[in-house]
């Protein structure tokens, strides 16, 4: 999967089969990919995939073609670098929040970042991403609604 996907409609997700863990959600206007395989750093025993939660239209470009375009169009190269920096930062924030925040605070950060996510995905997508059980999500929402 050495391709980048640019959704024009929101909410594809990246997931690793075998565990069915959602590692990222794509948002309209962002690149989404399985970046480890995109850069050829590692091979996985599982089959990383990008699945659509809702109807989506993508622009898809191979890494090789992107590199060629970036050489021809320097502003595209800068846009790609900026987007990649943002993606790396977002992944690191996600990891650190998962390690340091309570489940409730992690959920609040999640819905603050993905503002319309609860209207667009099912609970099991959210619980998979947050790495919590469905019962925990229900309890967190009740706690927020009735402090």
Description:
Helix content is 52%, strand content 17%. A 3-stranded antiparallel β-sheet has the order 3-2-4. It has a two-stranded antiparallel ribbon with strand order 1-5. It has one domain (3-145): Jelly Rolls. It is of the alpha+beta class and 147 residues long.
- Order the strands across the largest sheet as they lie in space: 3-2-4
The first-to-last residue Cα distance is: 45 Å
Average predicted confidence as pLDDT: 81
Q: What does the radius of gyration come to?
A: 17 Å
Beta-strand percentage range: 15-25%
Number of strands: 5
Unreliable stretches (pLDDT < 50, length at least 5) are none
Q: What's the number of structural domains?
A: 1
Report helical residue fraction.
40-55%
Query: Could you name the CATH class?
Result: Mainly Beta
């Amino acid at each position: 999967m050495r391709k980048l996907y640019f959704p024009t409609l929101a909410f594809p997700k990246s997931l690793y089969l075998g565990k069915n863990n959602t590692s990222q959600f794509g948002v309209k206007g962002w690149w989404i990919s399985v970046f480890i395989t995109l850069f050829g750093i590692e091979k996985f025993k599982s089959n990383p995939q990008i699945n659509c939660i809702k109807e989506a239209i993508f622009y898809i470009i191979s890494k090789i073609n992107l590199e060629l375009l970036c050489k021809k169009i320097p502003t595209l190269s800068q846009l790609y670098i900026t987007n990649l920096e943002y993606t790396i930062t977002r992944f690191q924030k996600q990891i650190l929040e998962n390690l340091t925040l309570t489940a409730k605070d992690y959920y609040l950060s999640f819905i603050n970042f993905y503002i319309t996510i609860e209207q667009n995905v099912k609970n099991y997508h959210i619980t998979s991403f947050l790495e919590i059980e469905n019962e925990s999500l229900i309890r967190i929402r009740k706690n927020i609604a009735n402090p």
